Amino acid sequence: MIELHHLTKRYGDKLAVDDLSFRIPEGVVTGFLGPNGAGKSTTMRMILDLDRPTAGEVTIDGRRYADVQDPLREIGALLEAKGAHPGRTAYDHLLWMAQSNRIPRERVDQVLDLVGLTAVAKKRARGFSLGMGQRLGIAAALLGDPKILMFDEPVNGLDPEGIVWIRRLMKSLAAEGRTVFVSSHLMSEMALTADHLVVIGRGRLLADLPMAEFIRQNSRSSVRLRTPQPEQLLDALRGAGLSPRPGPDGSWEVTDGDPVLLGDLAAAHGVTLHELSPQQASLEDAFMQMTADSVEYRTDIPGAAATPAPQPAWGSGWDTRQAGKES
Ligand SMILES: Nc1ncnc2c1ncn2[C@@H]1O[C@H](COP(=O)(O)OP(=O)(O)O)[C@@H](O)[C@H]1O
Ligand SMILES: [Mg+2]
Q: Fewer CB in a 10 Å sphere around the end CB: N or C, the chain?
């Protein structure tokens, strides 16, 4: 179990992580969700002791990372793809890591097989696609057979097959009883992968709850109505005790409304309808709403969901300290 206690990180004026406290349990996939710039990578770096907290601390089974005896066997992490030296083959990259951590050579073959890279094991990392780079990074994370695994945005830039593969892998690692902590800025991806959800925005904790609970709270449906007689429609709806909200393009929406009753109500008031359609609230929308105030950069298109601009890569590389210093 990983525990964060009032974890805080300040870069100059910028409060990247702001008093975060939560637990990452064993045996489940915990999704770490937040818009770009929310502080996910910074938090993960602090868990791995790659970045020093301004305040607060992280414990791993009650100990600080620095006090963990054999980090590679305890925590495996994929912080950024393309961590391997471009001139080194996949096999040599893993072998060097294994040898510097007293891990038997056979384990290299095992993890190459596990991530599906056996056929290209003797190829140099330089020629690897993004997906192959991710697989190699995951192989490295798995090398010490650790009981805690962290993946920072592992599906970024992957093709659909690679995404499904990573999703299955994370679930199977959790099913083996391991702690799996995975970040993403995509709610749709987390909904398919995570059992537990931690949401942050601008470095602050916004939610910490089981995925099923988040879905239950946020999957309320609504009915969208469109009419050339909006005043009459609104009178009829409000007269029936309903609270219509403005929807896109001049439409109106009624939460938990019944399309049949709404159609009858409009007809009884002589209101012409041009649209009467049930809407399923998406989890992505719920996430956007939750984090709306914490998106760093947004494109101000009226009515459009806020889209965070890409963040610069801060080039952490995955954990070279764990790996034993790459030249
Ligand atoms: N090394 C750094 N120096 C200065 N600012 C940083 C550094 N690393 C991250 N930040 C800033 O901290 C905030 C959180 O960044 P990050 O943890 O990368 O977010 P996320 O991974 O959620 O996209 C951002 O505003 C980012 O610009
Ligand atoms: Mg990040």
A: C
Residue pair 32/184 in contact (Cβ under 8 Å)? The answer is yes
303 burial type by CB count under 10 A (0-12 exposed, 13-18 middle, 19+ buried)? exposed
Where is 265: in which H helix or E strand? helix 259-268
Distance CA 225, CA 257 (A): 10
Question: Which CA distances in Å does 132 have to 90, 129, 196?
Answer: 10, 5, 28
Neighbours of ion ligand 2 (CB under 5 A): 40-41
Pocket test for ligand 1, best of 8, 9, 11, 54 (most atoms within 8 A of CB): 11
Residue with CA closest to ligand 1 atom 5? 11
Predicted local distance difference test score (pLDDT) of residue 321: 35
Q: For a pLDDT cut of 90, what percent of the chain falls above it?
A: 61
Please report the atom of ligand 1 found closest to the CA of residue 34.
Answer: 22
Q: Which of 8-12, 146-150, 232-236, 308-312 has the lowest mean pLDDT?
A: 308-312
- Per residue in 258-284, pLDDT (tens digit) is 999 999 999 999 999 999 998 877 788
Q: Is the CB of 14 under 6 A from ligand 1?
A: yes
Q: Is the CB of 40 under 6 A from ligand 1?
A: yes
What is the rounded CA–CA span in Å between residue 276 and residue 325? 62
